[in-house]
Structure to design on (347 residues):
């Protein structure tokens, strides 16, 4: 038999696979920045009602866009819908030429997608306090063509100020601002799309709207960029359940705001508790990154796991001090349980 492996694209061997957070029955999962409240009951009702439609192709994209346009105060022509914002990252990288530059640490999806497509990817370290290094970023991104910035940033929860984003946009490169955690922060740069032709904002229904399992996100940019990215996407990239669920979720903004409010309150409570013993990083997202040294991050995670709580171990970030763990904010009940377990174990 002849070996098929000689046909592999050489750069595929370099791809670092994405490792998702563990899900174990009976455990509290605080490892993937999901929304443990679940979606509005209006979403659940619509999923039940629409199940007889699985034999037809999805056909509600325009209605979804209409709702998103209303939510974001923009036009339908400024929107593209993706199979999670993950897919939009991929589509952007298929549409525009690299090299790509991003932050470190940040969401691993940018690097993985770039590697899969054989594009050059490099990153620039955040400041030691995880703040955005504006001047250094501008200086070091001179040779790149696509910039991925995430604000609030995963996994640090830190944000980039609008005036810094403007400075980056002024450089004229394709600039993606990933606002997956926008609702937990409340500030956006969507309004800048009329001013900057090179801006693409990414959002998702996976976090505040609690639809991670259905896979739906959206991109916002000027009409020309959106129509270019549309050429690259598969015609039925988003399934009908995701479409109906997104519409229903946007018809119950009140519910989303209520649970986001609880998550932000619990984020404060958890931050204060962690501060008594460890070094949490102030966060504008639905998670907190915490330096648990002098414990090792592994020991911290293992001890919580023994108590049936799963958090995400990041270990040491190269070039930074500390032993890092990321903890998603669950429901208020889960947060109380977490705090009581932390007190038993470490205080
Ligand atoms: C910053 C960031 N962007 C994008 C994604 C992917 O989101 P989606 O579930 O919409 O693909 C995530 C998921 O955790 C994320 O943290």
């Amino acid at each position: 038999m002849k070996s098929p492996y000689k046909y592999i694209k050489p750069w595929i061997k370099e791809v670092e696979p994405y490792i998702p957070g563990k899900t174990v029955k009976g455990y509290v999962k605080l490892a993937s920045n999901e929304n443990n409240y679940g979606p509005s009951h209006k979403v659940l009702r619509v999923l039940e009602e629409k199940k007889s439609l699985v034999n037809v192709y999805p056909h509600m994209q325009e209605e979804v866009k209409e709702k998103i346009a209303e939510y974001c105060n923009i036009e339908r022509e400024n929107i593209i819908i993706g199979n999670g914002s993950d897919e939009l990252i991929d589509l952007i990288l298929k549409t525009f030429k690299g090299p790509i530059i991003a932050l470190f640490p940040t969401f691993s999806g940018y690097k993985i997608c770039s590697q899969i497509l054989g594009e050059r990817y490099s990153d620039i370290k955040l400041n030691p306090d995880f703040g955005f290094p504006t001047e250094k970023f501008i200086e070091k991104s001179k040779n790149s063509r696509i910039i991925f910035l995430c604000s609030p940033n995963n996994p640090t929860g830190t944000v980039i100020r609008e005036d810094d984003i403007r400075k980056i946009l002024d450089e004229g490169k394709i600039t993606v601002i990933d606002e997956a955690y926008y609702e937990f922060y409340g500030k956006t740069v969507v309004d800048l799309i009329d001013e900057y032709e090179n801006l693409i904002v990414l959002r998702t229904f996976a976090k505040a709207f609690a639809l991670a399992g259905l896979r739906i996100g959206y991109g916002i940019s000027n009409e020309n960029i959106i129509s270019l990215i549309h050429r690259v996407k598969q015609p039925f990239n988003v399934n009908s359940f995701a479409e109906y669920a997104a519409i229903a979720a946007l018809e119950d903004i009140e519910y989303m705001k209520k649970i986001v409010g609880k998550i932000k309150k619990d984020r404060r409570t958890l931050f204060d508790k962690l501060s008594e013993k460890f070094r949490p990083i102030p966060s504008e997202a639905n998670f907190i990154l915490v330096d648990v040294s002098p414990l090792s991050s592994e020991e911290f995670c293992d001890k919580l796991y023994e108590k049936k709580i799963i958090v995400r171990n990041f270990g040491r970030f190269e070039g930074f001090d500390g032993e890092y763990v990321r903890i998603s904010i669950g429901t208020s009940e889960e947060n109380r349980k977490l705090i009581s377990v932390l007190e038993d174990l470490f205080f």
